[in-house]
């Protein structure tokens, strides 16, 4: 395996845990429509776009809406999500991630964010981590969601690093599939039993550093 020259990170569940905020906002919308959304059902929404998530939530509740009402509901959900995100502070960055990014910078390894979120920049500003990333590829730039490799291929192109020399950090199955489709090393954050296609799965960044990455 060629040495790693760039690391690309998903946002939710990797840099910061905003999943809880997504769940609260989607569940409130579901309850407003007359049904509940369980945490297990919410797992299906990880790593995919807002409109795709909305379609899944509506299918769970057996609810049909007009395209106009879907757009209104999606916008309202996002407004609620951002209200919750505005409560975030630098302490909300996941354990060990800031130290790992410092280590990458110290070793001249480029860093990029690859997320379906359209709010990535706002969230990074709230947790004071925007300066860590050499490029941000988010929902405002991509035309194809994960598992399509577009988001990570754009990140590699921005950083001028061949895909084979990029490592991706992801907590969602769709994100791991996206990384593999891009021809990149895939590091899963979470459970090995779920992220079965990852090259390695770690629980988080607390006991993970550059030596471990280079040994994969």
Automatic annotation (TrEMBL):
Cleavable signal peptide: none
Pfam family for this entry, one: Hydrolase
Family assignment from sequence similarity: Belongs to the HAD-like hydrolase superfamily. CbbY/CbbZ/Gph/YieH family.
Alphabetical list of NCBIfam families matching this protein: bPGM (TIGR01990), HAD-SF-IA-v3 (TIGR01509), PGMB-YQAB-SF (TIGR02009)
Protein's name in the database: Beta-phosphoglucomutase
Species in which this protein is naturally found: Dyadobacter beijingensis
Gene this protein is translated from: pgmB2
């Amino acid at each position: 395996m060629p040495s790693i020259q760039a690391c690309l990170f998903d946002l939710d569940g990797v840099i910061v845990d905003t999943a809880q905020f997504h769940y609260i906002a989607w569940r409130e919308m579901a309850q407003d429509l007359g049904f509940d959304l369980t945490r297990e059902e919410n797992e299906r929404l990880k790593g995919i776009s807002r409109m795709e998530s909305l379609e899944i939530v509506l299918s769970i509740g057996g609810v049909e809406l007009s395209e106009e009402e879907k757009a209104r509901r999606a916008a309202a959900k996002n407004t609620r999500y951002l209200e919750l995100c505005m409560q975030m502070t630098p302490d909300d960055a996941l354990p060990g991630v800031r130290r790992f990014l410092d280590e990458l910078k110290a070793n001249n390894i480029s860093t990029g964010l690859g997320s379906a979120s359209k709010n990535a920049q706002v969230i990074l500003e709230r947790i004071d981590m925007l300066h860590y990333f050499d490029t941000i590829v988010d929902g405002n730039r991509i035309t194809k969601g994960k598992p399509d490799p577009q988001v990570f291929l754009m990140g590699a192109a921005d950083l001028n690093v061949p895909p084979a020399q990029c490592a991706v950090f992801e907590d969602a199955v769709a994100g791991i599939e996206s990384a593999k489709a891009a021809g990149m090393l895939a590091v899963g954050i979470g459970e090995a039993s779920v992220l079965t296609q990852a090259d390695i799965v770690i629980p988080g960044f607390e006991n993970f550093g550059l030596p471990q990455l280079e040994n994969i």
